[in-house]
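Batch manifest, entry 17 of 40.
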Amino acid sequence: MSHYPNDHRMYDLCDEYGIYVCAEANVEAHGIGYGRDCLPERPEWHHTIIERNVRNALFYRNHASVFMWSVGNEVGWGEGLSKAMDVVKKLDPSRIFLGFGWKHVDGKFGADNTKTDVTSGQYSPFDLLRGFIKDPRPHWLSEYSCAMGNGMGNLNLHGVLSGENIVIAADRYLKRSGQGELAVWK
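Output type: structure tokens
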């Protein structure tokens, strides 16, 4: 649904209408880096990463629509995310885990994550996607288009591969008006 926990009413609607949800913890670090110094590798961030994942799981674990947990988005991979997965698996062993585990180390940019149940990538070129064929885990192209403004390119390339995982396609269409009513965004 988004790269952070959504309003609880959205999860209620997904439960009611049978929409599958990958519930993602609010752990994101655009631009900080994906290498050896990424946030999950920094011990001073481990508590925060674990706490956000635990709260996400505690809050949404009773929703039937949630079929998978995501430990974070575009944050690199490291011990902090591994520890968060261990704690959440104790709270809810019934769901699988997705981890966007990219790292840029020694001039190579690629997945550095063998712990999650599902591999993931974003805006991946097909030659990189072919590399995941060797991995026995399912691969989920978790984001492949951004619907900000009128920029919806590449749908002909990736849309047939993974379903509909488009970032910023929501959160901008409803607004409150008056006494708490929801109105269509104009």
